[in-house]
Each structure stands twice: as C-alpha cells, then as structure tokens.
C-alpha cells in the first residue's frame, strides 16, 4: 500500500520510512508540517498515513488527521502523548505511542495493512491503542 | 430670634419642671444625673421635639455646654459623614412612637467624630400618651476602630494568601509544562537513539555486527517501554509492573514471528516506585530475552511469566520449556551483566533451576509497603 508519513523529526521519519519499505510498502512522502501534509494528501493519494500530533507548525497533527478522515484515508496517530488525542480520535484507527519499539511498529503496521486490505482476522498488537478501546476506557464506569 | 429664644425658654422650663418633680433624694434622678452613660430627655409636645434635659456625661461626650444643648433637636449632633438612612430610621421610629437602637456617626462641638450607639425610647403617661423621649448614648469608637483594624488586617492577610496562591499556581503550571517537555524530549531521544542503532544495523554488512547492534537496540527499547509506561497512572510516582510486563513480553514473543511459542501470563496488578522501574524492567527483559535465545526462537515451546506478590515479597518468575540451543556467548555475557547489575541495584535474589528442557528463574525482591512508600 501507499503510505504517507507525517512527522517533524526527520531522522525518525526516515527510519520509519525504511521500516515501512522493508515491510513491502511504498512511502509516498514525508511531511514535516500540516501544509506539507495537506499538499501531499491532494497530490499523492496515499492508502494510509502515520501522523505525529506535534508538527513544525505546532500541534496541527489532529487537523491533518481530520482532513485524512474526511478524504477517506485511514491513519494512525504516532505520538509521545496520546492523552492529547481528542475523545473521537479525530477519525483515526488508533494510536502508536512513542517511543515505540521496532517490533511494536512492525506488528502495528502488519495489523493495519491487513485491515486495510480487508482482512480483519488478526488481533491488534499491544503497541496499537485502538480508537474504540481508548474511548471505552475513557467513558466513566 | 425671638421665637427661638422663647422655644429655648420653654424647653428649659419643661426640664426644670421635670427635675422639680423629683426631690433631690430621689435615687433615680440622682442616678440619671451622675451616671457615666450620656443620657438626654426630649419633649415631643414642643415644636421640633427639643432636648429638655441632659446629664453631665452627655456634655462631656459632646463637648457642648448645657446652654448649647437645651432647647435644640438632637440633629445638631449629625454632620456630613452621618448616614442618612440611619437618621431616617430614627425619625421614622420616633414618629411611630417606638423604641429604636442604631449605630450612628455623630460630631462633637470641636468637629471631631465618634461612633454613637444610640438607644431611644418613648416615655408614656397613665393615658398612654407619649410625654417624653429618653435617649442614651454609648461611644464605641474604639470598638469600631478595632473592628476596622481587624477587617483591614484580614483583608491584608487574604490579599497575601491570594498572592501566594497565584505564585504557587504559576509555579505549578511551570512545573507541569517542564515535566511534559522533559518527558517529550526523553521519549524523542530514546526513539532517536533506537533509530540511529537501527540505521547502523541496516547498513552493516557483517551479520555478527548486525546481531550485536540488534542486541543493543533490544535494551534501548526496553527502556523506551519503561518511559512510555511512566507517568500514565494518576500517582506518577508509581509504575505498574504488570502492565509493563504484559506489553514487553507480548512484544518480544510476537517479534520472533513464531506461532509455535505458547505464552501464558500470570500478572497481578503491582505498583512499584517509579525509581525501581528501570532495573525491574531490565530484569524482565533479560529473563524473557534469555528464554527466547536459549531455544524458543529456534524451535518454539512454552513460556510462562509470573509477576506477583508472594508473602510480602515481589516475585518475577520466567518458566520456559524448549529444545535448548547454544546461545551466542557475547549475548549471554551482556545479559548476565545486566541481570547482575539490576539485581544488585534492587537488592534482589535470583535463583535458577533446570529440569530437563524446562528452566525456571525466580527473582525475589523484598518490597514492604514501607519501602514502596519511600519514594
């Protein structure tokens, strides 16, 4: 699948790009700001995206996420502070908390790519916080 | 002028008649004259209800002479700062023939002010007709000023408290911001370190070096997992060892990609002081990593991980059954060093048992409630 990476730390973005390519996917682009992300959403039509919340122009990852959701592109947040994600998860499938491990990221990517290709038989890995579970956890008992 | 003089004369005559009604031995009259409480009597049957009698205490309080008081309405004691609502209250009650008690700011002859607790009461004859009004005064200026001092002291104290509270709140906000910032940087730096090691591993041609780098990466990532789990509880000084273990072990076993590893977990919720999180986590990482390297990774098998309290002790047990393989000696050496350092750090005891293809490693740590609360 075609993957977009929205991350303002270039070193982390490049490493994630290698990881995604090693898993057999194509990276359509790395975006460091919400403007770059918007431009790429329009031009490269990714199938999936990783979105950091804090970008070069501030905590704009949430807005980028909402635009991806509006364009029907599934995505997950990748953030050091998943508590900042709004209750509705801004339409994201889930979130991977930083600092993720190599295996955590591999497992999450494998689960998500299977899901996008229509295979929902897998069970979600520990490294991926699903939007549904997070919201169930947030509701008062 | 003439009329005014006449009024005064009438008032004095009325006062004289009142006094003449009481022989000098009359103890009530004597008490009225001699008491230290300022008192006056007015005559409502005359125009403007003038004072017809006052005692020495009243003259002393107001600074006026007897001649200046008799024949005048009490309002000469009022001044610019006197509250008009209070004056109206007195007037209304007198008109209604009722008792009235008010606190009013009055003026002396020299223009100085005093707080006057006035009590006015009608005096009636046998036919219930009001013939006099009696009024007593009490100078409570000192009480009033003490009240004002107290109020001002209280306001000052409240202002101080508000100021300190604002300072504390600002300091707390700054601290929260700093903690979040530091946490964010630590997380990013851990991920950056891991990324650098991964990049090096990716460009390294030598399989052996690559393996060494991945071994370093594994330990960095154990610390990453600790950092991710820190500060997630409401009590940020505590670390949930079970939650950490669940994620770390699942991650390590998933990473082997082997479906023939059967993992079972026996994890009781266990909070430990955050300062112990790193050595404890390295212990779990080494024990599980060791089990994976000794055979699970090559031929699958069973692994059972226990984290729980046992008789006041804290037990980590890793039990694995696998076809043993000879692990990489450098890897074993690093694992042994990390395990030793971490157990020494915590004062924990480690016990290893072999039973055929089954290996059981117990790490026991004394964590009384006392110890847990030290940090």
From TrEMBL, chain A:
It comes from the Bacteria. Keywords: Phosphoprotein. Coiled coil: none annotated. The modification 4-aspartylphosphate is found at residue 52. Residues 2-113 form the Response regulatory domain. SUPFAM superfamilies: CheY-like. The keyword Phosphoprotein applies. This is Response regulator of citrate/malate metabolism. It comes from Neorhizobium huautlense. The lineage of its organism: Bacteria, Pseudomonadati, Pseudomonadota, Alphaproteobacteria, Hyphomicrobiales.
